[in-house]
Amino acid sequence: MAESLDLIDRIGTVDRVARIQQEWARERPDVDVRPQGVIGRLHRLGVFLTEELCVVFRKYGLGEGDFDVLAALRRAGAPYERAPGELAEHTMVTTGAMTKRVDRLERAGLVSRRVSDSDGRGRVVALTQEGRELIDRAFSEHMANERRLLDALTEDEAGQLESLLAKWLSVTEGPRG
Q1: Roughly how many angstroms between the first and final C-alpha of the chain, as a whole number?
Q2: Can you spell out the DSSP letters for 120-168?
Q3: Per the confidence metrics, is the pTM higher than 0.85?
């Protein structure tokens, strides 16, 4: 708990997580509540960041998963297509949700589906011209939004945080992530 109090002294504020930690430390001094300092703040920050990112996605008529699928197709390079299984590997969208998402994006004219040239049984999902133009505009604004959000930290702080998060994520997800 001393580390949390030290943090409060350094940043000059008691946030919700610090208050919760203080209450638990008072009520359950036998339990180490320090993990809440990291996990609680990451959770709160994650909820906040998701909402801030979704503002841009909604501006373009997209949900978070829709943006992810279009971005994965755009990152594939010309001709901007991937097989559905490959698409799932390059997104944060589950294979179960992929079909519904691709159906919706196809109805919107942002992607098309066709039979694979290399495997007559396989299918390929491809960006349409309209989809490519939309994801290019949305991605530019998305990166500006992420820059705005990250500007609360110095470049050194952002670099340190990125290294720590990459280390932690590699341990929790494993090397393939």
Answers
A1: 33
A2: TT-EEEEE-HHHHHHHHHHHHHHHHHHHHHHTTS-HHHHHHHHHHHHHH
A3: no
How many whole angstroms separate alpha carbon 85 and alpha carbon 94? Answer: 10
* Dist CA 161 CA 175 (whole Å): 19
Q: What is the per-residue pLDDT across 39-61, written as a single tens digit (0 to 9) for each?
A: 999 999 999 999 999 999 999 99
Asked if residue 79 has a cis previous peptide bond (ω within 30° of 0), the answer is yes
Sort strands 111-115 and 81-82 into parallel, antiparallel or unpaired: unpaired
> What is the Cα 100 distance to its own chain's centre?
20
CB-count exposure of residue 140 (10 Å: 0-12, 13-18, 19+): exposed
